[in-house]
Write the structure tokens for this entry.
Amino acid sequence: MGGDSVIQQPIRRSRQSAIRLFAQEYSDADLPEEGSGEYDPSFVITKLGAKVNRALVGGVIDRLERREHESGLTFTGHIRDPTGVHLFNVASFQPELHPDIEELLHRFEKGDRFLMLLVGRARWFETDDGGVFTSFRAEEFTVVDKDRYTHWLVDTAAATLRRLDAFEASMESDLTPAALEASGVPRDLVDGLILARGHYGEFDTENYRVGVLQGLSIALGSNAVIESAPAPEASGDQPTLS
């Protein structure tokens, strides 16, 4: 796999920038926004107003398995960061990624645990009773060392704090673009915050601040990263995510 990585150059930015966010913020989200046209991007809107089309996530590989379907092979996995777990998959129509994910699967099944960064496109599955399960479809991934993971933790903590500050500012403002910007909300967060505030209402942000502190604690080296990863779970049925 050429150095345990399908990414030979720095992770590319596609049409939508890859947002950095922790697992808890993404898993708490239940507001999808479909694109209005065939080629318009779709998003998952988080409680803090992040409009997630693509994201750069990271953590310890926590689960990885291969599945066979009529359409071909697929792979599903979990990446655990300080706040929770991201679910990702590699689809049957992504054969260019299969050799690399197969090699990671081989390592995982031998008991190896490693740090990963992954760029994925936001996906979601809506249940009949209105529940929303979020995941990512992998586009690029790489095994990283602790130094590179530390950089991701610091960047993601900073991005989360920026959204937290914007959310707090929005609580003292009318939900209009002009009023939010006048309250100090960065322009790129305005649209997402209007959607998030309208859907989620008021909530306690303390858990997100705790998640930032947990991430920075690991970045400062106060906790082991890989050694604390739990053993892989037994295979079980998971919902098929769109």
User: Anything to note?
Assistant: Residues 5 and 142 are 4 Å apart (CA to CA). Helices lie at 23-27, 98-109, 146-170, 177-182, 187-200, 206-219.
